[in-house]
Amino acid sequence: MVKKEGLLEVEKWLRKEERQLPKGKKRIKDYRDEKTELYVLDVPTLETLYKFSKKGIIKALGGPISSGKEAVIFHGIGAEEEELAIKMYKVSTSNFNVMLEYIIGDPRFEHIKRDRKSIVFTWARKELKNLKRAFDVGVRVPKPIACDKNVLIMEFIGKEGVAAPRLRDVPVEVLELDFDLEELFLRIISSMKIMYERGAMVHADLSEFNILMKGYAEREVAGVNVDKIEIEPVIIDMGQSLLLKHPNADTFFRRDVRNIVTFFNKLGLDCSVEEVMKKMTR
């Protein structure tokens, strides 16, 4: 949940950073500097966040809800008190060579600079465009809101700062309280098919690790009967997603299918890659 340290603190800090110190004086680090080092909230990223706050997109910024090598995701609050997921890509540590592999061949990003910062900024814009493309054709993904430089803002999947669990992290006996496993499998396969046919795109890294199960966090926060809140799979992490025009699109699509089939096979469902591919591409 968002704490009292909102964007007003960001504004104060930026003003502090902009002040010139007398010659020979060194700036003393405080807790804000420590948080910057911990969460990679450098001054350019904070300035981007401040621009979003001035535009009324972000009202308050909370703590991190997810952290990886490429990005940190923070919980936030929007102008209408809606919960936001604020994804900040790490410019200094992102593997821009891997990113470049998924960008080259995408007609939407033909003329980009090859330096690290430009590639990371392009990756953030690419995820926004991919989310919007999937969202517009009816695939359940976080609703995209805005992007600038290395900061992407989208719908928060969860409740009151409690993020929805990944499909990978939900015990099968819990899943089976809400779904027949085949039903859940077919819902995910259906989303992939819609993305492929209507969106003319593939996720390119789909697995049980980047499907969130919306509804479990709401149940945890509300403490209500399981029948009152529906559980639904939400596909996330679409920075690497590709249009079908990309030369590797079909290879990545088959890999996505294999990942999902393998996961459900482990849960006890009898299905095969070839069987699913026939349904997908006919």
Question: What level of helicity do the residues show?
Answer: 40-55%
What is the mean pLDDT? 86
| Proportion in β-strands | 15-25%
At CATH level 2, the architecture of the largest domain is 2-Layer Sandwich
Overview in brief:
By secondary structure, the chain is of the alpha+beta class. 43% of the residues lie in helices and 18% in strands. It is globular and about 50 Å long.
Give structural notes.
- This protein is of the alpha+beta class and 282 residues long.
- It folds into two domains: 150 residues, 2-Layer Sandwich (Phosphorylase Kinase, domain 1), CATH 3.30.200; 118 residues, Transferase(Phosphotransferase), domain 1 (Orthogonal Bundle), CATH 1.10.510.
- Helix content is 43%, strand content 18%.
- It has ten helices and eleven strands.
- Strands 1-2-3-5-4 form a five-stranded antiparallel sheet, with helices on both faces. The protein has a two-stranded antiparallel ribbon with strand order 6-7. Strands 8-11 form a two-stranded antiparallel sheet.
- Strand 1 and strand 2 form a beta hairpin.
- Helix 1 crosses helix 3, helix 4 packs across helix 5 and helix 7 packs antiparallel against helix 9.
- The longest helix is centred in the middle third of the chain and has 21 residues.
- About 4% of the residues have low confidence.
